[in-house]
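Take a specimen:
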Amino acid sequence: MEFRGRPRVVSPFTSDFGKIEADLKKLDGYGSTALYDAILAALDQMETARNHRRAILLISDGINTYGKARLEDTIMELKRHGIELFTIGVETPVDESTPEDVIMRMVFDKLTRSAGGEVFIIDDSRNLRRICTTIADQMHSQYSLGYYPPKTVEGGWREIKVETRTRGYRVVASKTGYFASQTPAQN
């Protein structure tokens, strides 16, 4: 998808990486950015995905300059859908961080923490392939954990935290919680 004034699907779901790469090369990063609208539109697109494993890869400067959606609403929808979000932030290649770079890092951190993804920052497009390989490796080496939570009548947000007791190991890109399914009240 591209998301200048509004999100637009450039290429539907495909496993043809050559087509994806060609479509990416046609995009430019100029103009307004409807970042939050694009994430919400991508979540809607995910409803038609065939694969069980789903994730959104967002490449942007992280500055929302246009659109109707707000950051808080976007975070809530990412939590509600339970789809991972990986972000690649494109920084200005200068020695010092600009105010825009600081905002980008903060926004991407909030978005990825809510979705269980990870933030990557680049200032050279030649690093894109390496970062995409890292993301693919992470997605292929993840495990799913399950447990039986106590029954609840309301379907609210439940925070979770996954830790390891083994020294030298850490849990990365884990979700911070989920929305409990509503169960019917027992009479």
The chain has one domain: 2-140.
